[in-house]
Write a structure and sequence with these properties.
Blueprint (H helix, E strand, L loop, with lengths): L5 H5 L40 H9 L14 H25 L4 H22 L6 H25 L3 H21 L7 H26 L13 H30 L6 H29 L2
Helix pairs in contact: 3-5, 3-9, 4-5, 5-9, 6-8, 6-9, 7-8, 8-9
Length: 292
């Protein structure tokens, strides 16, 4: 299963990608017609000689991530995620406290967002995670979020706090639904969801161009009216979809014995998804405050 996150899209954790050798029997029908499985440069498993994998095959048991053998665990994912999100939070708090609301601060926020995007792209094209790049991304993303949060708060008091609560609520609800099995992350689910997400991003890019050239007024589809609220809600739903893919890949990575360093990629992907949801929740909080 592949995520929309650039880091996950290049290094999947599931049996159909780089660590597939831990179970030589792929899911029935998954690889047929699956664009993510075909031509995958990581299809050959570098860990195929893993003695744990051979033992699992001999015993006919599902693969299990061994303890204390350099394999990724949930504790690793939680620890790296806490470090990455903590860096985002520290950057945001410092930017909020030290940078006044001004045109210069807005320019700094845009510059920080661009640097964060570049760092994310560089990491996504690397074969192994680089903690310095990931934490650097988190720091610059935090500056961006801190500046725009302060700007929103200056006009819509309490909007950032509402956005934080909303992000936590969406994340918790998505995890609950996923763990309860109400959503099954299958190849069909991923294809449909990614198609919708790509279409959404394309439409938003076109809308941005129309607004920039004065063709669309008041933000177009991203206005602060009912249409903008509907688009924002759709964006949050797409963010929740991204989370389900991330949860699935983390779960598969642990089950199939991904190396411990891959926990940094899990943290990176989760951070990008949560930033997406937070920004959309921030806009929604402002929209609903404007309509009161």
């Amino acid at each position: 299963m592949r995520s929309s996150n650039p880091v996950f899209s290049r290094r999947g954790f599931s049996r159909d990608n780089g660590y597939a050798g831990f179970n030589t029997a792929p899911q029935a029908g998954y690889a047929q017609g699956n664009p993510y499985a075909q031509g995958n440069p990581y299809a050959q498993n570098p860990y195929a000689t893993n003695p744990y994998a051979q033992q699992d095959q001999q015993l006919g048991a599902p693969p299990q991530a061994p303890v204390a053998t350099g394999r990724m665990t949930m504790d690793d994912v939680v620890m790296r995620s806490a470090m990455t999100l903590g860096t985002v939070a520290v950057g945001a708090v410092l930017a909020w406290a030290l940078l006044p609301v001004s045109a210069g601060s807005y320019g700094l926020a845009i510059g920080s967002a661009l640097v964060a995007m570049v760092l994310a792209l560089v990491q996504s094209f690397k074969r192994t995670p680089v903690p310095a790049l990931i934490l650097g991304y988190a720091a610059f993303e935090g500056v961006f979020l801190g500046v725009i949060s302060e700007m929103y708060n200056s006009q819509w008091s309490g909007a950032p706090f509402q956005a934080v609560l909303g992000t936590m609520a969406v994340s918790a609800a998505t995890l609950l639904v996923y763990k309860a099995g109400w959503i099954r992350v299958t190849a069909r689910y991923a294809r449909i969801g990614l198609a919708i997400a790509m279409a959404f991003v394309l439409v938003m890019a076109v809308n941005l161009l129309l607004v920039a050239f004065g063709v669309a007024s008041d933000g177009g589809l991203r206005s602060f009216g009912p249409l903008g609220a509907a688009v924002g809600i759709l964006a949050v739903i797409i963010g929740a979809f991204f989370l389900t893919l991330d949860f699935k890949q983390i779960e598969d990575g642990i089950a199939y014995g991904a190396p411990r360093q891959e926990a940094w990629l899990a943290a990176f992907g989760l951070t990008m998804t949560l930033v997406w949801i937070y920004v959309e929740m921030l806009r929604l909080a402002a929209i609903f405050s404007s309509n009161d």
